[in-house]
Records
---
Amino acid sequence: MKRDVKMTNNSAMPVIDEQLIEKTIEENRNPSLARIDEILTKAAEARGLLPTEIATLIATEDPEHIEKIFTTAKAVKEHIYGRRLVLFAPLYVSNLCTNECAYCAFRAKNRLITRKALSQNEIRREVEFLVDQGHKRLLLLTGETHAKSSFDYLLDSIETVYSVKRGGGEIRRVNVEVAPASVEEFRQLKAAKIGTYICFQETYHHATYAAVHLGGKKRDYDWRVGVFDRAMEGGVDDVGIGVLFGLYDWKFELLAMFQHINHLEARFGVGPHTISVPRMEPATGSDLASRPLHPVSDADFRKIVAILRLAVPYTGIIMSTRESSAMRNETFALGVSQISAGSRTNPGGYSSTELTAADGQFSLGDHRPLDEVIRDVASMGYIPSFCTGCYRLGRTGADFMDLAKPGEIKEHCDPNAVSTFLEYLIDYGSDEAKKIGEAQIQKALTGMTATARVRTEEIIKKVKSGKRDVFC
Ligand code: SF4
Ligand code: SF4
C-alpha cells in the first residue's frame, strides 16, 4: 500500500550550514589508517556514513587509504546493485531559458546558439526515434522559464511522450529535470505521471552561487534549495539531487549535499532517489565552462563516486555522457548505477539536423550509439536494464526505501533487468549484442539468489513467448 510522505517538522527550508561544513572538514584532516579502517568496516555493512566519517574519507590523500575506499565501494555496489546498470536517454525539448548561469550554453543572453522549443509533433518524432532504438526511460529536460505557458507546454510534452506506441515499444517512465516548481505544480506533475523529479543546486556555496547565477529566478538560492520540500508536499516523493562539480570545492559540496539529504530524511522520512555527478564541460558561449574555478581531477572524481556509494548505499548514482566511455566504465564498479546512453543535448538532436551539437547544453564525452554502449556494458559483465517496475507498482519514496534498505529490492531488480534486457535483445539488438547479451544473461542467472532466479526464469519464458513489459 502506498505510504503517505511523513512530515516531522514544519521547517520548509533545508539548512545548509556552511560554518559547520568548514568545521567538519577542518576537524577531520589527516586521518590515521586505523580511523579509515574503522569507517570502512561500518561502510561495508551498507549502513551509510555520518558527516564526520564522510569528511574523514574526503580528507585522505594516502594511496593505501584510497585503494581501501575503492575496494569497499566496489563490494557495497556489487552487494546492493549486483551486475545491473539502468540505461536512459535525455530528451531536450526546449533550450529557451530566462536565467543567466555563467557555465551554460542555454543562458538567456547567449546569442551563439539557435533557440528552439520543439513542437509536439517534433517531440513525437524524437520519441519515435528513441523508442526505435529500444529506450524505455527518458529524462525530459528544458531550459528554465517560469511562465504558465511553459509549464503547460511541459505537461503537454510529457503527455506526448507517453502517447507514442511503436509495436511493443514505448516510453514507460518519464523523469523530468526542469525549473523548480511550486507545490501546486508538483501536484500536476504527479498527476502527469512523472517518475523522478531532478534538480541540481549546482553549488551549495552561497557566495559562489551568487557569483555564477547572474540573472533570472535562479538567483534565488532558497527557492531552489527548497524545491524538494515542495515536491514532496506536492506528492512527488522520488527526487534526484546533484551539484555541478567544478564550481566550488568538491569536498564542501559533498558535505553540503549530505546536509540536504539529512534534511529531507528528517522532514519526510525519505532522502533522494538519485544523485547525479556532472563535472563541468565546455559549453558554447561560456568561458567559465572551459575553465572551471575548481576543476575536479579524474582521481578526485573516482573518489567522489566511491564515497557517495558508501555514504548513501541505497541511493542511485547517475552518470551522464559528459564523461568519456573510459571514465564511465571505471566508475560503474565504484558505484554508478544509472547511465544515459546515445545522448544528444540539443533540442531535436535525435531526429533532425536543424540544430547542431554546438547548440547543445554542454559537450559530450561519450558519443556512442545505444547498441554500442549495450555491447560494451554487457561485455564488462553488467546487465543493461530498462526497468521501470517500481514506479509502475507505486514502489516509490519511502515504500522503495523500505524494500531497498534490507536489501530485498535486488530480488526485483535482477529479474526486471533481465526481462528488459532480453526484450531489448529480441526487439532491437544487433547480432553482436544478442550474442554477448544472451551469454551474459546465463551468467547472471547463476549469480542470483534462489528467489530471484525462479522469478527470472519465469520472466524469461514470458518474454521469449512474445509478452512484453513483464516485471515483478
Ligand atoms: Fe538555464 Fe539551466 Fe542553463 Fe541555467 S543551467 S542557463 S537555468 S538551462
Ligand atoms: Fe529500479 Fe525498482 Fe527496477 Fe530495481 S526494480 S531497477 S529499483 S525500478
---
Amino acid sequence: MKKLQNKHIVLAISGGIAAYKSADLARRLQDAGASVRVIMTESAQEFVTPLTFQALSGNPVVTAGSAANGMAHIELARWADLVLVAPATADFIARLIHGRADDLVAALCLATGAPVAVAPAMNRQMWENPATRTNIQLLDQRGIQRFGPAQGSQACGETGYGRMLEPQELVEQCATLFDSGRLQGVSILITAGPTQEPIDPVRVITNLSSGKMGYAVARAALDAGAKVTLVSGSTCLTPPERVKTVRVQTAQQMFDAVHERLDDTQIFIGIAAVSDYRVEEPAQSKLKKSADTLEIKLVKNPDILASVAARNPRPFCVGFAAETDHLEDYARKKLEQKRLDMIAANLVGGETGGIGTDDNALLLLTPHSKVELPRAAKSQLARQLIEHMANHYFEQKNPA
Ligand code: PMT
C-alpha cells in the first residue's frame, strides 16, 4: 500500500518564494496515494498561480477570490486528515500562533480538527530572530507539527537555516504522522464528551468535558487505519468526516447507543465524562423559583464501561480515570473493579486543567505496566495512547 493511501491532505500555501516547490509537492503527495486539495493566501498567488495547482491536483483551488461558496475553507477543514502549510512564512507562523483568522489559510487552521503541520521557509535572519524563535517554541508546545527548515543556500543569496525541506522529504514526514495502518480494519467504539441529565425542560446536570480528548483519540485511531464509531455527548466539535458519529444527550442514551453497536466492536474506549447520577423524575415544565432551597432526588446511572467489560465475549476495554488526587491509586482501583485491559488516568480541575483544555498529561496503566505520557497537546497524547493500546491489544490477541 502507498504511504499516504486514501489520506486527505490540504496543501495550504502562504506567500514565499518556496511556493514554486509546492507545485512539485502537490504532485508527489498524490504519487504517494493522497488526495490533495489546495488553498492559497493572497500573497502566495503573487508567486504561483492557482491554475498551476488546479491542474496538478485536479481540484479547484480555494482562494479569497474563488470563494463563491463562502464556507469553502470550513468544508476543507472538515475534509482534511492533515493540513500541511508549505511554505509557512515567518508572518504566517506568527499569525497562526496568535489565532488570527484574517485570511482563508489561517482561518482553516483554526477551524480544523485535523493535525496541522508547517514547513517553515524564510530568510535565515528571520528564522533566528527572537520573535520567530518564540513562535516556533509555541508551535512545538501546541503540538503543531513542524517539518524543517533545512540549512543551505537561500533565494536571498544568504546561507543558513530557513530553506523549506525538499518536496520528497515533506512527503516522508507526512507519512510518519499516519501510523502506517497499525489498526487497519479494527473496529473501535469510543465515547466522548459530557452527558447532560435533565432537571426540567431547560436545565441539565452536566460537567466541563469539551470532548477534545475523545475526538483526538477518534482521529488518531482513524489515522491508524481503524474503523471508528464515536458516541458523543453534546460538544461544539466537528468529528473527522470518516468517523461514524452518534450524538446523544444522557448517560442512558449513551449506554443504549454503545450496547447497540458492540457486536461489531473489537476495542471499546470510554473517554466520556458520564454523569454518575440522573434526576429521578425530571420536571415536565420549567421549575419556578419559590422556596429558598430546592431538593432534587438523584438516582444512579448505569456504568457504561463496566457493563461493556462484563460482557462475554467482550471487546478490549480501555477506560479513562479523571481524578483530582491520588491519581495512580484511584485509577488502579477502577482498572481492577471495572475489569479493564487498560486505563488512562488524568488529573483534572484546578490548575492542572485536563478537562476542557487543549493539553493534558496521562498515566497509562494495565494490570502489569505503567507508562507516563508527559503534558502535551491532546492530539499528540492521543497518538501515543493509540500506539500503546495497539501494542497491548495485539499482545493479548496473539500471545507469544
Ligand atoms: O473532554 P475533555 O475536555 O477533552 O476532557 C477529557 C476528560 C478529562 C473528560 C477525559 O480525559 C477523561 O478523563 N474522561 C473520563 C472522565 C470520567 O468520567 O472519569 P471517571 O473516573 O468518573 O470514570 C471512569 C471511567 O468510567 C471513564 O472511562 C468513564 O467514561 C466511565 N464511566 C463512568 C461512569 C459511568 N456511568 N459510565 C462510564 O462508562
